[in-house]
C-alpha cells in the first residue's frame, strides 16, 4: 500500500482549512439575531437583552394596510413605521378620538401612547403633524402576536370575516373601512395560524408517544437484521416466487383479455376500430371494442414470452446472482460490525449539514443595517434612497419631503467582504457537497475493504482478519484520502451545476421563452444522468481502491472495463438485488407500520391501556413507517455494498484464476457448483 492521489489530498486538506476560516470569518461578521429577532425602523432588535427593547419582544406596524401580505411583513420591509412593543393592541382606537378625550380619559391616552414612538407624550400636537411625522399610528386594531409580529386578530362569525366581532373599523383618517380590506393579509394569516394550531397538536403527540416511536424503530432494526440473516436461506425462494407470480398474473391477464375479446363477439359496434371512433375523453368507450382487448392480449403475450425467454437464457446468471446474495448474507454474518457503520456515516453527514447551515446563516446575516428614506409623498425624489439616521435631520430631505424618515430597510453593505457574500455562499455550498460525498465515499471504501477481506480469505472464516472493518477504515484514511476526495470532487462539481440549473429554472419559470425552458430541461436531464453514472462509477472505483490500493482514475478504469466484460451479469445481479432489497424495505416498513397502526388506534387488547391518547394517531404512525424504512435502508445499504464488492471480487477471481491447483478459485463452494465444470476447468494458454 502507498498513498494515492496525494495532490488531491493536499488540496482537500487546504480546502477544509479554508472552509474553517470561512466559518470563522462568517461567525465574526454574522449575527443570527437578525433572523431570530424582528428589527424595528431604527435597526434595533426586539427583545434584545440589555437594551431599551429588552421587554419589547413584538414588532408593531403603524399602518398594516400598507403591507400587501404577511409574506411582505416577514421577508421584506413594509412601507410603514415599525416599533417594538411589549404586547399587541387589544382594542379598536384612533388617534383622533384618543387626542380629543385625553383630558378626561387619561387611561385611553396612556394605553395608546405605548404604540407611539418612544418618548412621544404630546397629545397637544396637531393630528396632521402627528400623522405626517408618524409619531403615532392613526389607528390600532385588536391583534395577536405571531412570529413575534402583531397581526390582526381575524375570526369568522357566521361565515363573515370579523375582527373582535366587528366587520368595520375607522382608519383614523376620516374613513370607515371594512375588515375585508385586510382580506389578503387575513387569508395568509388564518392559514398560518391554522398551521400553527396543527403544529402544536403534532408537537403534543410527539411529546406523548416518543418512546413508543423509539420502540417501533428498535423493532424495525431487529426485523431488518432477521431479514438479512434469512436471505441466506430464502433469497432464491423469494425471487422465484416473485417471478412465477408475475408469470401467473400476466397469464391471467392474457386469459381475461381473450375472454373479453370473445365475449364482445357479435355485439353491435364492437368491431369498430380505434381509428373509427377517434379520440374520446371517456376511456371506457375503448373497452367496448374488440380491437382494444386484442391489442392488450398481444402486448401481454409479448411480455410473457420475453420473460420466459430471459429466464431460459439467463437462468445460470440468475442462479449466480442469488448465490452472491446468499454469500453476502453469510459475509455480514461473519462481520456483523459492518451493519452499524452507517451510524458513522450519518454522524459525519450530520456534522457537515450542521456546519454548512450555521455558516450559511452567519453569512446571510453578515450585513450592516441599511437605512432608506421613507416618504409619505409619492413624488419625493429621495424616496427609497439610502440615508444615515445620525445626520438625516440635518439634510434638506425633511424640508423637500415633509414627513420623510430615515428608517431601517435591510441588512447589507458596500465593503469588499459584503460584495462577495454570494460567492462565499456558493463556496459554502460547494465544499458542503464535497464533504458529504467524501463521507459517503469513505463509508463505501471502508465496507468494500472489509467484505473484500472476507472474499479473498482462503479459509472462511479462519483467514478473515481480526478487525476487518477497523483495518479497512484505517487503510482508507491513511492511504486513500486523496483518491476518495478526488471522486467526491468530481461528483460535487456535477451536483453544484445541477443546483445552479435548478436555481435558474426557478428564476425563469415566469418567462415565455420556450427555447430557454427547453434548453434548461435538457441540461437538467443530462446532468442528472451524468450524476447517476458518476455515482455508479465512483462506487465501483472505491471497491477497486479497497482491493488493490491503486489511484482513483486507474481503479475507475479497471472497474468500468471489468463490469463491461460482465455486463449481463451486472444487469441481472443489479435487478435481482434491487428487487429483494426493495421487498425487504417494504416488508419491514409495512409490517412495523401495521403493528403501529393497531397499537396507536388501541386495537390490541393487551396494550389498549398502554396506548397514548393522541390528537392525530397518524403522526407517530407515519414517523414509525418512514423511520422504519430509513432504518431498513441503512442496513440494506450495507448489504448492497457487500453484494457489489463480492461481485467485483467474483469477476476478478474468474479472470485471474482458473480453478487449478496453482491458481485456485477463492469463491465459495456454492458458486463453484453453479459455474459447473466447464468454467472451472484450467484455462488454456
TrEMBL record:
Where in the cell does this protein reside?
Cell membrane
Q: Which UniProt keywords apply?
A: Antiport, Cell membrane, Glycoprotein, Membrane, Transmembrane, Transmembrane helix, Transport
Task: Name the reaction it catalyses.
Answer: choline(out) + n H(+)(in) = choline(in) + n H(+)(out)
User: For this UniProt entry, which segments traverse the membrane?
Assistant: 7-28, 210-230, 237-255, 293-314, 334-358, 431-456, 477-497, 517-534, 579-600, 616-636
Topology in the lipid bilayer is annotated as: Multi-pass membrane protein
Q: Which GO terms describe its molecular function?
A: antiporter activity
UniProt-listed Pfam families = Choline_transpo
Task: Kindly give the InterPro entries that the UniProt entry links to this protein.
Answer: Choline_transptr-like
GO annotations of cellular component type: plasma membrane
Family named by the database record: Belongs to the CTL (choline transporter-like) family.
Q: What is its biological role?
A: Choline transporter. Choline/H+ antiporter.
> Which protein, by its recorded name, is this?
Choline transporter-like protein
Species of origin reads: Charadrius vociferus (Killdeer)
Taxonomically, what lineage is the organism? Eukaryota, Metazoa, Chordata, Craniata, Vertebrata
